[in-house]
Amino acid sequence: MKAVGIVVEYNPFHNGHHFQVTKARQITNADVVIAVMSASFLQRGEPAIVSKWFRTQMALACGVDIVIELPYIYSTQKAETFANGAISLLAEMGVNFINFGSESGNIQDFEHLLTFMRQNKVAFDRHVKENMKLGYSYPRATSTAFTQLNPDCDTLSLTEPNNILGFHYMKAIQDQGYSIQATTTLRRQAHYHDQQISEGSIASATSIRQAIQNGELSEIKHVMPTESYQLLKSYKQTYSLLHTWQDYYDLLQYKVLSTPVTHLRMIYECEEGLEYRVKNVSKRATSFSDWMQQLKTKRYTWTRLQRLATHILTNTTKLEMKEALSQQTPEYIRLLGMNTLGQAYLNQSKKNRSVPLITKPAKAKGITAFLEERATNIYLSPLSSEVRRKEMSEQFSRHPIIAH
Amino acid sequence: MKAVGIVVEYNPFHNGHHFQVTKARQITNADVVIAVMSASFLQRGEPAIVSKWFRTQMALACGVDIVIELPYIYSTQKAETFANGAISLLAEMGVNFINFGSESGNIQDFEHLLTFMRQNKVAFDRHVKENMKLGYSYPRATSTAFTQLNPDCDTLSLTEPNNILGFHYMKAIQDQGYSIQATTTLRRQAHYHDQQISEGSIASATSIRQAIQNGELSEIKHVMPTESYQLLKSYKQTYSLLHTWQDYYDLLQYKVLSTPVTHLRMIYECEEGLEYRVKNVSKRATSFSDWMQQLKTKRYTWTRLQRLATHILTNTTKLEMKEALSQQTPEYIRLLGMNTLGQAYLNQSKKNRSVPLITKPAKAKGITAFLEERATNIYLSPLSSEVRRKEMSEQFSRHPIIAH
């Protein structure tokens, strides 16, 4: 059996995702689609709208055969670290292909870019360093450096978020020497950052989350598969909320106000005196968006600061993350869900796996599992105390979801 | 002008307190009554029901002339440390007398006890140590040790909370060599720990807090001075709550779940592996009282564990508290309120004070002020975000209350 791997957040699962799953299988002619899905906190430094369990159900209902967890140590990271983690997990799962969505839709464009970047690495790094000295944010420094290299016109631009991720997936495969073939699917219609829901059946995840935040669930019904939409509604009914940063703001503020700057400084991604800025802002801000707006400077992107907020909330230190990321291979693979086809694949590929496939986190040891448990408990904090207790106690014994 | 000092929490101010203020002035014939009042968190390890500002107003409306702050580093401590801090602040204020309520009402009983304890110190300490080894809580170990010394029948018992405090006030005066005369007022009717509101005009603070927790404010109207009762009602109206531990439970649980045991262990009063017990209980408990009930063992008193909870909530470490308590004299005296008479006393006694009298905390430096600011910010956490912001920003510039 052949497998194609995809890297996903499904926050929430929409028609664009469904399109990619179908295309990934079609292009590669793979038997199974394996998604590595971010657990509780996402790359933009946000809590997932619904739990990983509900998002796993969405995925299984809409064409994915196996869902494994992208743990906290990888899910809340800049593109490079995020991609390295995701690809190493997919490689351990034995995928033959990966597939990712892109504005280009042409894999040669990415191969071209990869070669170009390899040839110009020294100059590129120098430009990035110089640009950072000018006070640019890291993404701006890199995209400017890219322009400064003056690539020929048919080289893909590194300024688009999906190009950056795609580039890093392919670079990770190359750097780690995996024999995985990369493929890409042309993204349809919606642009990643679009704020408005389109009239068509495809909308950006950003516009969908915007509608959710405004409490306008019915507005997104036509851009999501029925099963996914029902699961979203059911989560809200069961847990009385869809998770947004604002649900965690009291905890974040409390955390900052109760923590001396000498300890804030030890939090992962807290650099260059940001601890003082965070401390001052936390005394004045009255909501999470207010906090972010007051914290924002041109030196840091919104996403970078949201990731910092996430690490403060989860109390993740530089030392802990250094230890976690120093592992040569993932400490374990956590299975979140599968269908019958997925189960057959797992049985067949069993002998090739060198990393333990965990079905209950109680069996996972080590720093990855330690940080994952903490992040999960904190993710559950806004739920009512009774539900929280139940969910916390179940997280150790919960079996993967099996779809038939 | 002569002054009498009293040590108070006024949580809230009731008729028993009013009786003591009147008696303290009468017995000592002092011109002014100076209260050193616990700030935000109290000796039993609880948040004060209303802010120190409202409790200062209660005090000034009911016969107290000057209110100074007993900072966090002293207010949330066992009797000995609590008494040492309070007495040293009153001594710096130049009081000639102190007065405290007791079941005995006879100061000779306390002098007797003090002499007896001095003479039997070595044997007493040995008994305490042996009793602790048997797994007794510290208060039980000391009261048993006291009985083991077999004092003659007219020696006051060290098993009553008010006797213990009175004993430690007098011991602090003696140990630190202050020339302050101790006096005591016979407590009327209510016993400290009574749970039921009595029909008379005096009720215990415990029974009053119980009624408040049950939302039955009208039940305690007859046991409080009118001004104090009005202030209590007004606080609830203005801030939409009266502070109880339950209002902080989500923060406490979050704090424990986000903190590794290696750091929990560094929290003040977290001894003998309590960090593991705290960690486990926090995953299961659904309310503060549930948390406490699950945490309780015969080794520790309820009060001792509530103080631990307070230190966890405020993130106060052993190292910080060690530094704070190593100060020879208080770092500052913070004035919370006064009337005209109090003002006259402050002017007259100015030249005798060696410790700065602070009217705004922005002027206070050092570890005491640092920990006080943190505790205050956390005390304010359950208020709505807008009110919280306002109160946090005002705490640095707020002037003492002046009553006319």
What does this structure look like?
With 404 residues, chain A is α/β, with parallel strands linked by helices. Chain A has three domains: 3-107 and 164-244 and 328-403, Rossmann fold; 108-159, no CATH class; 245-323, no CATH class. Chain A is built from 19 helices and eight strands. In chain A, strands 1, 2, 3, 4, 5, 6, 7 and 8 form an eight-stranded mixed sheet that branches. In chain A, helix 4 (79-92) packs across helix 8 and helix 11 packs across helix 13. Chain A binds chain B through residues 249-251, 253-255, 257-259, 283-287, 313-315, 374, 377-378, 381, 385-386, 388-389, 392-393, and chain B through 249-251, 253-255, 257-259, 283-287, 313-315, 374, 377-378, 381, 385-386, 388-389, 392-393. Chains A, B: ATP binds at residues 7-20, 101, 162, 187. Chains A, B: This is tRNA(Met) cytidine acetate ligase.
Ranges of chain A where pLDDT stays below 50 over 5 or more residues in a row are none
Q: How many beta-strand elements of chain A?
A: 8
CATH class descriptor of the largest domain in chain A: Alpha Beta
Q: Which structural class do you get from the secondary structure elements of chain A?
A: alpha/beta
- Radius of gyration of chain A, Cα only, in angstroms? 21 Å
Spell out the CATH superfamily of the largest domain in chain A. Answer: HUPs
Strand content of chain A: 5-15%
Helix coverage percent of residues of chain A?
40-55%
Shape call of chain A: globular
- Count interface residues per chain for the largest interface: A-B, 27 and 27 residues
Number of contiguous helices of chain A: 19
How would you state the average pLDDT of chain A, rounded?
91
Distance between the termini of chain A: 19 Å
Find the CATH topology of the largest domain in chain A. Answer: Rossmann fold
Keywords (chains A, B): ATP-binding, Cytoplasm, Ligase, Nucleotide-binding, RNA-binding, tRNA processing, tRNA-binding
Organism (chains A, B): Halalkalibacter kiskunsagensis
EC number (chains A, B): 6.3.4.-
Binding site for ATP (chains A, B): 7-20, 101, 162, 187
